Amino acid sequence: MELKEILVEAGFPYDEILYRFSGNEGLLKKYLLKFPQDPTFQELKHNVEMGDYVSVETSAHTLKGVSANLGFEKLSEICAQMVMAVREGENEKITPLFHIAQEEYDAVLQCLKQID
């Protein structure tokens, strides 16, 4: 299956993502395949489990940016909500939002497993 087909089937805006990579599909593929090794999600998980909300804000903000650049808009939006919750002192929202982020992160990883 072609990269475009994989991403479109998963609901990701292929053309928009490719544009961010100057039309270079090889470069896009390289960064997509690196995403599962990025430690940011595991750091976010650890920070949520520890109740370290200052670090939650940092790791959620980082993951928000990485996800947005790769076209993972749902994951990026959930991370943005986590950042906002911390900044507004609404820490009770963090764990439920993290569970939603976990589901979306897992869906992204499932999609990326199809790329060879």
Automatic annotation (TrEMBL):
GO terms for biological process: phosphorelay signal transduction system. It holds the Pfam family Hpt. This is Hpt domain-containing protein. The lineage of its organism: Bacteria, Bacillati, Bacillota, Clostridia, Lachnospirales. The modification Phosphohistidine is found at H61. Residues 20-116 form the HPt domain. Keywords: Phosphoprotein. It comes from the Bacteria.
